Amino acid sequence: MDVVKRGSQEKKRKKRKKKNEEANLKQGEWYMGI
Predict the structure, then answer these.
(1) Where is this region: Disordered (predicted)?
(2) What is the pLDDT of residues 3-21, one digit of tens each?
(3) Cα–Cα nearest to 9, from 24, 1, 21, 31
(4) What share of the chain is helix, strand, coil (3-state, %, to 5)?
(5) What's the CA gap between 25 and 4, in Å, rounded?
(6) Per-residue CA distances from 16 to 7, 19, 25, 27, 34 (Å)
(7) Which pTM value belongs to this model?
(8) d(Cα 21, Cα 5) in Å, to the nearest integer?
């Protein structure tokens, strides 16, 4: 049970990290656009 829980948490974390990276990329593009 713990392993499954940990696995889903890792997936969520990776997803969140990817979202953050994409957001940073968009911010970077916006910043460069100024």
Answers:
(1) 1-24
(2) 778 788 889 999 999 998 8
(3) 1
(4) 95, 0, 5
(5) 32
(6) 14, 5, 14, 16, 27
(7) 0.48
(8) 24
